[in-house]
Amino acid sequence: AQKITQTQPGMFVQEKEAVTLDCTYDTSDQSYGLFWYKQPSSGEMIFLIYQGSYDEQNATEGRYSLNFQKARKSANLVISASQLGDSAMYFCAMREGLWAGGTSYGKLTFGQGTILTVHP
Amino acid sequence: GAGVSQSPSNKVTEKGKDVELRCDPISGHTALYWYRQSLGQGLEFLIYFQGNSAPDKSGLPSDRFSAERTGGSVSTLTIQRTQQEDSAVYLCASSRSTATADSNQPQHFGDGTRLSIL
Hints:
The complex is a heterodimer of chains A (about 120) and B (about 120).
Chain A: E1 4-5, E2 10-14, E3 19-21, E4 24-25, E5 32-39, E6 46-52, E7 60-61, E8 64-69, E9 74-79, E10 88-96, E11 109-110, E12 114-119
Parallel strand pairs in A: 2-12
Antiparallel strand pairs in A: 1-4, 3-9, 5-6, 5-10, 7-8, 8-9, 10-11, 10-12
Chain B: E1 5-7, E2 10-13, E3 19-24, E4 31-38, E5 42-50, E6 53-56, E7 65-69, E8 75-79, E9 88-95, E10 108-109, E11 113-117
Parallel strand pairs in B: 2-11
Antiparallel strand pairs in B: 1-3, 3-8, 4-5, 4-9, 5-6, 7-8, 9-10, 9-11
């Protein structure tokens, strides 16, 4: 089974509108972390936002917020007031094994990504 | 340096040749990861270093792949006898640590090496 599922291969949004990118995950760990990265056409991976499994509040970072629904195992990224520069590939990723007995290696498991296109 | 540096940015080589890819992590980052990004497979974990040791090599696809890290800093990923299926972008990432207290530390990625096998 896929550990990270991003069901939207592509999304379109009008400039200045909000958009939600979906991410569901699968883990049996009690402690884990969820990350969103942006990859523009230039190729670099840019960290956007983090949500820990024990965080009670949804993470926010500027125009980015995370709609974290732990029981449903979803961690959707919300981008408010979209800008042309937001056009990129977006990856959801999970780090498992935090706080388990022993050291977490911290490796990330990525979803397949969602290509976001912002129209003027 | 300010960010993770990878070299070369592009590498074209003939099938059967050996290649070395280099990663220079952010200064002070003890954890270093190699990932591979290809069209068919997405982003895949290859190997993890903590300091100079590699406690997790589970993602290396075959024994043609190896990596080392020296001085707790620079890492080299070596692919021997390259095959066409090795064509991909190889990404290196570093983070401060993977200790519990730093669990929210993101991995910072380099720009990658685009490897093309002819």
